[in-house]
From TrEMBL:
Key words of the record: Kinase, Membrane, Phosphoprotein, Transferase, Transmembrane, Transmembrane helix
PANTHER family: HISTIDINE KINASE CONTAINING CHEY-HOMOLOGOUS RECEIVER DOMAIN AND PAS DOMAIN-RELATED, TWO-COMPONENT HISTIDINE PROTEIN KINASE
Organism from which the protein derives: Aquimarina atlantica
Coiled-coil regions listed: none
Identification of the protein by name: histidine kinase
Ranges where the Response regulatory domain occurs: 637-751
Length: 755
């Protein structure tokens, strides 16, 4: 009874302590508890309770309470303690000291636990002790012992197929990083990340899968990226890995998260300094790195009051010594200056006058700089507030379709009724389109903020484009009982050369906005040709509805991103970016303007005029509807090159569903060989591949084959790679994600050009 009261008291006390960052030892404890749960038939219930309690206390940074708890249990069981309890006692005490940053003290307990473990055959602590021993050697810089044990432990865990092998790899990679063996870090990290992809997780719990596949993977990625940049190779891959780890920063253990984020920003700054040569980005990411460093130091200071005060004291003393050294140097300089001035008393009056003038001008200059800094700071605060609002809104908006997609997948798996499955699939398709639209808007918003947007023109038919867009809204229209009408005036030239994707995004956002605020009503899309020139036409587009309308005082805010959301939020939600993107496209890319007219309770109308290039070659634009693709690619022989197995499988299925013969390959070297041996109509080329990327592969193919159509099939931002795509010899780009009809139409369009 006493034990239970003490345990409950300490757990509650620990929960009240403010959470700090959790280092990799906490992950090991988490793994230990999970392993114990899987093998609890080999461990007494009391031992498992001790491990769980110690884990919770250390997780809450309640180090003192954890030690008190262990000592209390030890005194209570001293007379009846057995090897299993002593093993748990010494192992947990070692973890407590490791977490407190005292590896030497931890070593005494861990090695004692190791000796006890030898007396208990088949105990669950054996493999975990190996992990802690390897970490002890790493943290105490005993690299010879670490190197000698590393391969032995790897071989041992390979035989038992134990996931703890990845902890061994991680400790060894960190040790190699500390020794600046960056080539070894790159080699081992690449192999371990590949092993993580192939590892069989079926017999593991969700918690263990999270620890290995998320947390350990994320830490491996950052050391891989750092080593690549230290070696000065593959900067783009390093930058991509840094972005991935920052996106998944919640996977970092809490205690180390700010330090890892500091490293990510620091190496991003190096990327822009050494490779991209963008000094603005260098300053931005260096400032972020400093900010995370300040946050990390502040948390260390707060943590110093709970059993680890020596960490802050060491840093503080070191800083005080440095400051004292600076002060002493300044004092020496002042003494020298004073000694010199004593011999120049005759010039004191002149110096005083010069100094007064200097102070006056300096104060004026300082005042001007302070004023500029205040204005700049106000701008930065506004940008920061807008950014925070953006992430807050987008986080909320993205979760809804993601949650819907996850739920529907499970429902569809368990639904046998074909009618219900078809309905669920329609909802799933809508959620997918909605999610894709949100992501596209967010990306375009980001690119506009950086001024990195332009038009990419191609031949297409306006009436076919509008029809396909309207068909994609069939589910929403059916739900809101609303009809969508397309009215194209007589004599309008619909075959044009323009940016189909951006024009589609304009209409998708306008139609989506109209559907949100129209129930049991109508939406009209109207197209009128205003003028015709030698190679240009001027068209007026109108999207109007008979929905709820907009209040007069809110009309001026609907295009202002997050301001417009005050009107939207009252009804059916939204990110507020759709109309902002529409306005930016029309004004910045088409050099025109959009007009909104609305009357509350009667509806809203958006209209704009833009100039488009006429299709003077009169090339017949192929039309492929969403449902009419069964044999549209019949007779085509195609090659798909991508290092991602899932992407290969999806692309192959899509192309074969349209009647094409499709071959897949996962690297650029084999792609060159296959193109030499076979006559392909189209080659789809991924851009980012290891060893030999898509650009280099295309250049090699063009050395012996100038005719085959090569298209980049990639999710990379088009504006960033469009120049490289054409320079390498590719014919065009298909951006992922894509609709099947758009993909097939792109293929047919390029085929017509070749003919």
């Amino acid at each position: 009874m006493f034990y239970i009261v003490v345990m409950v008291f300490l757990i509650i006390w620990g929960m009240c302590v403010k959470f700090f960052k959790i280092n990799i030892i906490i992950l090991l404890i988490f793994w230990s508890i999970d392993s114990l749960a899987q093998k609890k038939e080999m461990v007494e219930k009391s031992t498992l309770e001790i491990d769980n309690t110690i884990y919770r206390l250390i997780r809450n940074d309640s180090i003192v309470e954890a030690r008190i708890f262990l000592d209390t249990i030890f005194n209570h069981k001293k007379s009846e303690s057995d090897d299993e309890f002593l093993l748990s006692y010494n192992y947990n005490y070692g973890l407590i000291f490791m977490t407190s940053g005292k590896p030497n003290a931890a070593a005494n307990y861990i090695f004692k636990a190791k000796e006890i473990s030898k007396r208990i055959p088949g105990n669950s602590y054996e493999s975990k002790i190996k992990v802690v021993v390897l970490r002890l050697f790493r943290e105490t810089n005993r690299y010879k012992e670490l190197d000698s044990l590393y391969q032995k432990y790897i071989d041992y865990n390979k035989k038992s197929k134990n996931g703890i092998i990845f902890f061994h790899h991680l400790d060894y990679i960190i040790s190699e990083m500390n020794r600046s063996n960056f080539k070894q870090v790159i080699s081992i990290s690449r192999k371990v990340l590949s092993d993580l992809d192939d590892y069989d997780y079926t017999k593991m719990s969700k918690e263990s899968i999270h620890v290995i596949n998320d947390v350990v993977r994320n830490e491996l990625k950052i050391y891989f990226a750092m080593a690549l940049m230290e070696k000065g190779i593959d900067y783009e891959k390093s930058y991509r890995l840094l972005n991935e780890t920052e996106r998944d920063s919640l996977f970092f253990v809490q205690r180390e998260r700010d330090e890892y984020l500091r490293l990510i920003q620091q190496y991003k700054a190096r990327y822009f300094y050494e490779y991209d040569k963008n000094m603005d980005s260098v300053s931005y990411y260096q400032a972020l790195s400093n900010k995370y460093q300040e946050t990390y130091i502040k948390k260390l200071k707060r943590r110093a009051s709970n059993a680890d005060i020596f960490i802050y004291e060491i840093a503080k003393n070191k800083k005080d010594i440095e400051q004292l050294s600076i002060i002493n140097e300044k004092n020496i300089q002042i003494q020298k200056s004073y000694f010199q001035v004593s011999f120049l008393t005759g010039f004191l009056l002149l110096l005083a006058i010069i100094f007064s003038v200097y102070v006056y001008r300096s104060n004026n200059h300082k005042h001007r700089i302070n004023q500029e800094l205040k204005e700049k700071n106000a701008e930065l605060l506004t940008v920061d507030e807008e950014r925070n609002q953006f992430f807050s809104i987008m986080s909320h908006e993205l979760r809804t379709p993601i949650y819907t997609i996850q739920g529907l997948v499970e429902i569809i798996e368990n639904t046998k009724n074909q009618k219900q499955r078809k309905e669920f699939l329609s909802t799933l398709k809508f959620s997918n389109n909605h999610l894709s639209g949100l992501v596209n808007n967010a990306l375009e918003y980001s690119k506009f903020r950086l001024g990195n947007v332009r038009l990419n023109k191609d031949a297409f038919s306006l009436d076919e484009m509008l029809t396909n867009i309207c068909n994609s809204f069939s589910y929403q229209l059916r739900k809101s009982n609303t009809k969508l009408h397309i009215n194209i005036a007589e004599g309008v030239e619909t075959n044009v050369l323009d940016d189909r994707l951006k024009l589609s995004q304009i209409f998708i956002n306008l139609i989506s906005n109209a559907i949100k605020f129209t129930t049991d009503g109508n939406i009209w899309i109207e197209l009128v040709q205003i003028a015709s020139f030698e190679n240009m036409i001027r068209l007026r587009f109108t999207v109007r509805d008979d929905g709820i309308g907009i209040k007069k005082e809110l009309i001026s805010d609907v295009f202002d991103g997050f301001k417009g959301i005050h009107h939207i939020d009252k009804h059916k939600g939204g990110s507020g970016l759709g109309l902002y993107i529409v306005k930016r496209f029309i004004e910045d890319l088409y050099k025109s303007s959009i007009v909104v007219e609305s009357e509350e309770g009667k509806g809203t109308s958006f209209s704009f005029e833009i100039e488009m290039e006429r299709n003077l070659k009169n090339t017949k634009v192929p039309i492929v509807n969403d449902e009419d693709y069964a044999n549209v690619l019949d007779g085509y022989n195609m090659l798909v090159v991508d290092d991602n197995t899932i992407n290969l499988m999806i692309t192959k299925k899509i192309l074969e569903s349209a009647g094409a013969i499709c071959t897949t390959v996962d690297n650029g070297f084999d792609a060159v060989l296959l193109t030499q041996k076979n006559d392909y109509d189209v080659v789809f080329m991924d851009i980012h591949m290891p060893e030999q990327d898509g650009f280099e592969t295309t250049q090699k193919i063009r050395e012996f084959n100038k005719d085959v159509i090569i298209m980049a099939l990639t999710a990379v931002d088009l504006e960033r790679v469009i120049t490289k795509v054409h320079q390498s010899g590719m014919d065009g780009i298909v951006a992922k994600p894509y609709k099947r009809s758009d993909l097939f139409q792109k293929i047919l369009s390029f085929s017509l050009k070749k003919d």
